[in-house]
Design goal:
With about 200 residues, this protein is mainly α. The chain is built from eight helices and no strands. It has one domain: Vanadium-containing Chloroperoxidase, domain 1, CATH 1.20.144.
Length: about 200
């Protein structure tokens, strides 16, 4: 429990620092997004591949995966299926509320190659992929597959999240904040789930 508490504090610290200091006023954020403006112009085929990958982190793909996994899990364990879905939907709500609270503008160094409509911090693609894939690994997979599933979930989330500053629609600090917020929410939900399931003596 102490390890989880320390991890939660570390994640919260990163979220606060990224939220308060990141964005257009941070040199690293500006320089990274500006670099990829030219990179996309030089490598248009690679940019198209990034667009394909980033769509895997969009709402249609993630919600379809969430509902499918929740239904499949509920067949075996109804409570786990409900917990999986509640974790994912709660995470999405948390991310949207944080976006509205922070109100950070998105990068505008060039025309966005993909459609965007909400505020910049935290990245929904980074946070929602971490929550969705992580929740599926935790709640849907058998215990022996949980750790490999979490590694795969984190890897896929990192790949999808990294496309956002490369496409110029997020600052790198947005993506870092999204990953950390997703992990923090997952940690909280899984801790509550374990306590609820613990046999009472």
């Amino acid at each position: 429990m102490i390890v989880r508490l320390l991890l939660a504090c570390a994640l919260l610290l990163v979220i606060l620092v990224a939220g308060l200091l990141g964005g257009g006023g941070l040199y690293g954020d500006q320089a990274t997004v500006a670099h990829f403006v030219g990179w996309r112009a030089r490598y248009p085929d690679a940019a198209k591949a990034l667009i394909f990958l980033t769509h895997l982190g969009g709402s249609p793909a993630l919600l379809a995966a969430a509902v499918t996994a929740a239904l499949a899990t509920a067949i075996r364990r109804r409570s786990a299926g409900l917990a999986l879905l509640a974790t994912i939907l709660g995470g999405r709500l948390l991310i949207e509320l944080t976006k509205m609270a922070v109100g950070r503008p998105r990068p505008s160094l060039d025309a966005h190659p993909v459609y965007v409509f909400s505020q910049s911090f935290p990245s929904g693609h980074a946070g929602n992929t971490m929550v969705t894939f992580g929740a599926i690994a935790l709640f849907a997979l058998p215990e022996r597959w949980r750790v490999p599933g979490l590694v795969a979930a984190a890897t896929l989330s990192v790949l999808i999240g990294a496309t956002r500053p490369m496409l110029g629609v997020h600052w790198p600090s947005d993506v870092l904040g999204g990953w950390c917020l997703g992990l923090l929410w997952l940690l909280a939900c899984w801790t509550v789930w374990e306590r609820v399931r613990r046999p009472r003596t």
